[in-house]
Amino acid sequence: MDASELRDLTDEELKQELERALKEQFNMRFQRATDQLPQTHLLTDSRREIARIKTIIRERRDV
Questions:
Q1: Tens digits of per-residue pLDDT, 6-58?
Q2: Of 60, 45, 56, nearest in space to 3 by CA
């Protein structure tokens, strides 16, 4: 999801999106460990998405 799309979400929706992304990353880590994750770049993309969400949450908290 793009940063501009994330900024349009409410605080509660951002928290839900963060939980979803963290669960997805957790599952991908297990798939990578068992050699069932053919597209390893998805793990990096997931990490970046989590960072984007946390950054937007932090921006709103500091304002």
A1: 999 999 999 999 999 999 999 999 999 999 999 999 999 999 999 999 999 99
A2: 56
DSSP letters spanning 24-57: HHHHHHHHHHTT--S-THHHHHHHHHHHHHHHHH
Contacts of 52 (CB under 8 A, 6+ apart): 1, 3, 6
∠ at Cα 21 (19, 25), nearest 5°?
115
pTM of the entire predicted model: 0.91
Amino acid (1-letter code) at residue 42: L
CA distance 9 to 26: 23
C-alpha to C-alpha distance for 33 and 48, rounded to whole angstroms: 20
DSSP state of 34: T
